[in-house]
C-alpha cells in the first residue's frame, strides 16, 4: 500500500515510490559482461594510480562496446580528455532542472566546443512542477535521497543502456567517501566504470583548465569546488572538504550515482 504525505494542498504520494515509467538499465549482452569482468580482473590493479591519459587510451583500445562520458559540468576536463583519447564516446549530462544557470551555460558551451561528441541530456520522468504536485514542494529538502533517485539515479540508469561502460569524474581527493575509489571497476549492471581523474586534486584540475584554456564554470572560482543542484549546494570555506557544501542541510554526502 502506498503511503501519503499530508501537505497544504492535500495528499502527496510517498517519495519512496517513484513515478511510473522506465527506471532501469537494460541488461548487457552476456559476452560483453563477461569481457568486462575479465578486463577488471586483469587491469584494475595496474590502472589504479595510472595517469588519466593512460586510462583513457586503455579504455579506447579495450572496451568491448561504446562508452559514454558523464559530465556534471562542474568542470570540462573529461570533455577535453575525451576529445583527445575517446573520439567515439558520447557525453551525458543529467539535467535535473534544479541546476545553476551557469551550469546549463557550461553544458551549452560544451556542445558547441566538442561537436564531434553527441551530448545526451537526461531528464526525470516528472518535470520539476509535476514533482512538486505529486510529492509536495521542496522534496529536495524533505527527502533529498528520493529527489536524487528520481532526478539523477534513475535517469542515468535508463540512459546507460546503449553503453558497455561509462567514464566518471570521481577524484579521491574529493573526500573520505571517495578516498579509495578505483580507476577501473564494474557497476552493478556489469558495465565498466572508469574514473581517469581519481589521482587528481582540485589544484590539478584548475591547472589543466588554465593551461588548456578550457571552459570554466564560474562558480568554481567563487567558493564552490563541488557543484550540484542550486537548491542543494552552498559555497565552502577554504580548507573544508570540497563536498562540504553539498546537501549541507542534511547528513547526505552522495547523490547515489557512486554508491
From TrEMBL:
A Gene Ontology biological process annotation?
hydrogen sulfide biosynthetic process
Q: Which reaction does it catalyse?
A: [thioredoxin]-disulfide + sulfite + AMP + 2 H(+) = adenosine 5'-phosphosulfate + [thioredoxin]-dithiol
Q: Which organism is it from?
A: Corynebacterium liangguodongii
| Keyword hit for Protease | no
The primary gene name is cysH
Instruction: State the active site.
Output: 255
Ranked from the top, the taxonomy reads: Bacteria, Bacillati, Actinomycetota, Actinomycetes, Mycobacteriales
Task: Report biased composition (Basic and acidic residues) as residue ranges.
Answer: 23-33
Name of protein: Adenosine 5'-phosphosulfate reductase
State the InterPro entries in the record: PAPS/APS_Rdtase, PAPS_reduct_dom, Rossmann-like_a/b/a_fold
Pathway listed for it is: Sulfur metabolism; hydrogen sulfide biosynthesis; sulfite from sulfate
Region of interest (Disordered), residue spans = 1-33
